[in-house]
Amino acid sequence: MSHHNELTDQQKDDAAIWYARQAGGSMSSRQQAEFQAWLNADEGNRAAFEEMRQLWTQLEQPASRLAKQERSAWRRIFGPFVRPVARPFSIGMAAAVILVAVCALWSGNPWILQNLRADIVAGPDVTSRFQLPDGSSVILAANSAVTTDFDGDRRRVELLRGQAFFNVVSRHGDPFTVTSGEASVRVVGTRFSVDQQSAGTVVTVEEGRVQVAGWQKNNNVEIGPGQQVSVLDGALETPRQVNPVLALSWLKGRLSVENVRVADLVAQFARYQNDRIMVLGDLADRRISGTFTMANIPGSLQTMADALDAKLVRVSPWMTVIY
Length: 323
Hints:
The protein is of the alpha+beta class. The protein is built from eight helices and 19 strands. The chain folds into three domains: 99 residues, no CATH class; 123 residues, Sandwich (Jelly Rolls); 70 residues, Phage tail protein beta-alpha-beta fold.
């Protein structure tokens, strides 16, 4: 029996397969014997299986919550057109069933409902530029989506997800409005960025001036070049001075951040790849600063994990977990 300081990718993959088989409760006597033989063949195998067991214990509760959220979203949209099923989905269903359902959802297209609403959906490229009907333009980060309304004298854009940089041309004084979550940005002609993050929306101005408002009453502020403001839970935070070159570095394929939540940084990484990234425990709320390349997301994730003294585990071809 050999000893391993680090688990191999093969051991992690085998452990995930054996755990899924066990959780499903359908292993034959022969498979049980093969599993025991695999466990006893190497201490690393046993360690990999124990790590997978602990990891799944942490994943099971969020997976159940995600399944409930997705069911709720589908009911809101299709509820009026379908008849209720006789047996509702049980949250207590076997862990293997939840795992399969969540992985199927995540490995497909979890944004399908938003994409149906959107007028423009960016692909996997680091940035994509689109011309708008009024002569303005928008650069979208990967996997970002917007709706547009340019009927008559209206100039309205809604950022459904992701990050967008707008170059707005002046048109007879008609206002140009961008909404994102609980934030609203109103301009006439300027260059600015809107970033929809998990906790709220961040607006950064490169040129000109914009008026930013939250949903709370009498809650708005005007910011200019080199300024940035966040809208959290419908309320404006105090505007701050930033270096526009760093704040807008995503336009050139790099991401420079200062004292941001790990969860928000990971959400930005997730725009640039199909794999799902999950951050467990208190790690999500820790803060980090640094510059990361968008051309190599796995490498950037590893750099981030090393800086946080965290573990990064690729539990399947479609999911990476950091804890």
